[in-house]
Design goal:
642 residues; alpha/beta; 26 helices; 18 strands; globular; binds iron/sulfur cluster
């Protein structure tokens, strides 16, 4: 702990005459921020778990960072996005370090974010690059590698997100020979580990955190050093991310990638054999045949017929497993195979294990499903309920976990969140927002539109949206619960309004957001990926329109399995799962609008079930205290007064 922080209390820091008041040019006393900091401090000191809903504008990052620093413990902070990770490391921590003295902090990202020095050196000697673009990107990477201290690609601002040259030299573990690599001591991954070992604050994202947690305790060691507490920001995302990493996936792409990586390495290091080539070809053909047996329908669907499938297709299934083992064996037996072949051997055997789990385990706590995306077929097994896994692997093992987000409570209570994640017995706190929602935002719910399930809804909603966008003079997000609905409405509305319209899917997410921010009066049409983690403060975003109450699609296999399990256990899934989940999603979506004390705007929900059903009240009770109307004339007055 820096000397200046010794024996400091949150009140001395956040109070009216506290240190922050002296240091921060835009300091405002925020009682919620102080309450949260004191709760985090107590949880860390008393080794308790804590859940905090902290509304937008509370200043929650400092409210957990400061007590984390004051605790003197090694603490992992896990964020939902890399953006927030960078904001903490490059903005908030330097601000605190400037005043408190040097802090021992670092950030860690997934391996694909870092360059592999060995691959860069190999690429200079061997022809792995295709086309002028790759060669140009590679030149930039090669020069940067000579000076960078972290090897984090985020430092190269000009490198396109989709750079194929980067994909050929990143530090993914698939081809990493670890300690046998000549670059091991200087490797960016080794350096990242060393920085983490020497840090008190380790900033990661949820994907890295759960990838690490999922392998900890197995024969593979985790990569995050031991810690006594974890703070999850954007904690509403944890259930999905944990489900992903505690689950099992095996895909047709993985077979193609394995064959490509083995062939590529054998070619580069000149150790292949005709036999290996034949085995790879045979494995590829068998895998292609096997995955084709699962049908070609695009999308996600549940799969419970493993036994019947095996009765009919056992031979090809066993052939696929045998093919993987044969690849592993041949790589082991080829004397000339370099150390880089070791991870390929493990990968082949790991794929066989995962495929066996999916096909044969019959583990009833998982839901088994198939996804077809483009050319790929993905066989997935997802835990139906992550709460017991999280209790066992995380919450029971740690002194303190703090989970915070602007959207965790449903109608002021945390029952839903606790039930989904475990964490029974955690302390809870709701910190009200620092904003005056009643005067800053107007929630408008028109009453004369058809029900969302009515076929006439789309046309009527498009008309309403066009009218609203004229009143708001564009400057809006129009958010949908489905892609198809977004496209249908976009086609109708974009020609009716005199403002630039943008639609999700027509470019990378960050580029669309940038264009939205820099184009006066722009309107963005988007689906769930823009409902969270998007920050457009100021007038540029003055209206958020949502088409329907965002219930999860009940036919989605994971949602379906969760609903069925609640029912089997005697619960009532609609009120205990579907409504609370949708209430949190709605709060997230509307949360895009008011990002600062001076922001003003209109929220429109085109689904009047919120006013006409009994469960609608739960949604109201979960939202901030917006002003409310059912009349468009009030929207007109609101914008006229802005
Ligand atoms: S240790 Fe692995 S990631 Fe690091 S430089 Fe070597 S091969 Fe690349």
């Amino acid at each position: 702990m820096p000397p200046a922080a010794q024996s400091l209390t949150p009140r001395q820091f956040f109070g009216r005459k506290g240190l922050l008041a002296d240091w921060h040019p835009h300091y405002e006393y925020r009682p919620g921020q102080l309450a949260m900091a004191e709760a985090v401090e107590a949880a860390l000191a008393e080794k308790k778990h804590l859940i905090v809903e902290a509304g937008t504008g509370t200043g929650k990052t400092l409210a957990y960072l400061v007590p984390a620093i004051l605790s003197g413990k090694r603490i992992v902070i896990s964020t939902g996005t890399k953006n927030l990770q960078e904001q903490l490391f490059f903005k908030d921590i330097p601000f605190l370090a400037k005043h408190l003295g040097p802090l021992r902090a670092c950030y860690m990202k997934g391996r694909a974010n870092y360059a592999c020095r060995q691959k860069i050196y190999d690429a200079e000697k061997e022809p792995v690059l295709d086309g002028l673009e790759e060669v140009a990107d590679f030149r930039i990477i090669r020069e940067w590698e000579k000076t960078t201290e972290t090897g984090d690609r985020a430092e190269i601002k000009t490198l396109p997100e989709s750079s194929t040259a980067w994909a050929k030299i990143d530090a993914r573990s698939d081809l990493c020979s670890g300690q046998k690599c000549p670059q091991f001591e200087r490797c960016f991954i080794t350096l990242m580990h060393q920085r983490a070992q020497a840090s008190d604050l380790i900033i990661v994202n949820h994907h890295l955190f759960f990838a690490d947690l999922a392998v900890k305790g197995n024969e593979m060691a985790g990569i995050i050093p031991d810690y006594s507490a974890v703070i999850f920001d954007e904690a509403h995302e944890i259930e999905d991310v944990a489900g992903q990493y505690f689950g099992v996936t095996v895909s047709s792409y993985q077979f193609e990638e394995l064959a490509r990586d083995v062939t590529g390495l054998a070619h580069r290091k000149e150790f292949g054999s005709q036999e290996l080539d034949r085995t790879l070809m045979m494995m590829g053909e068998r895998a292609a045949y096997f995955f084709a047996l699962f049908g070609a329908a695009e999308g996600r669907s549940g799969f419970r017929a493993q036994e019947a499938f095996l009765l009919e297709h056992e031979e090809i299934y066993l052939d696929v497993l045998a093919g993987l083992e044969l690849v592993a064996l041949q790589l082991e037996l080829l004397r000339a195979a370099p150390d880089e072949a070791i991870p390929l051997i493990s990968r082949a055997r790991d794929m066989a294990r995962r495929l066996q789990f999916w096909m044969e385990s019959g583990e009833r706590t998982y839901v088994y499903w198939i996804e077809r995306r483009g050319r790929g077929t993905f066989l997935q097994a997802t835990p139906i309920d992550v709460s017991s896994l999280l209790d066992e692997k995380l919450f029971d093992e740690l002194d303190t976990a703090v989970l915070t987000s602007a959207t965790l409570a449903v109608a002021g209570a945390f029952e839903f969140f606790q039930q989904r994640l475990g964490l029974r017995g955690a302390r809870t706190l709701v910190v009200p927002s620092h904003f005056d929602y009643a005067s800053q935002a107007l929630l408008y719910v028109p009453q004369d539109l058809p029900e969302p399930r009515n076929p006439a809804f789309t046309a009527a909603a498009a008309l309403e949206i066009a009218e609203l966008l004229m009143l708001s003079r564009g400057r809006a997000f129009v958010l949908f619960t489905s892609y198809q609905q977004m496209r249908l409405v976009y086609d109708r509305v974009s020609l009716e309004i005199p403002y630039q319209t943008l639609m999700q899917g027509t470019g990378p997410r960050s580029a669309l957001l940038e264009e939205f921010r820099s184009t006066p009066n722009a309107v963005l049409f988007a689906t769930s990926s823009f409902w969270q983690g998007v920050d457009v403060p100021g007038e540029q975003l003055s209206c958020v329109i949502i088409d329907k109450l965002p219930f999860a699609v009940p036919s989605d296999p994971v949602v379906e399995a969760r609903i069925a399990t609640i029912r089997e256990n005697g619960g009532e899934p609609f009120s205990s799962y579907q409504v609370p989940q949708a209430a949190i999603a709605l709060k997230q979506g509307f949360g895009r609008l008011i990002r600062g004390r001076r922001d003003r705007g209109v929220l429109a929900l085109l689904d009047h079930r919120i006013t006409k059903t009994r469960y609608g009240q739960i949604f109201f009770d979960s939202l901030p205290d917006y002003a409310f109307t059912t009349k468009r004339s009030d929207v007109e007055k609101f914008f006229a007064a802005v």
